[in-house]
């Protein structure tokens, strides 16, 4: 792996794409009445255990 692709994946743009993807996944799961994946919640800074206590 080149250092350029590694810096993109682990840098600002990689983090930004991860947050956007996680937000999209959590939103879709919430709208469908499903529980989002714990990893997506963690990327967004939400504790998976605390998600159950969020009012709808």
Automatic annotation (TrEMBL):
Name this polypeptide is given: Uncharacterized protein
């Amino acid at each position: 792996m080149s250092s350029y692709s590694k810096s993109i994946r682990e840098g600002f743009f990689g983090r930004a794409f991860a947050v956007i993807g996680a937000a999209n996944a959590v939103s879709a799961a919430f709208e469908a009445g499903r529980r989002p994946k714990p990893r997506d919640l963690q990327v967004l800074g939400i504790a998976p255990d605390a998600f159950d206590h969020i009012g709808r």
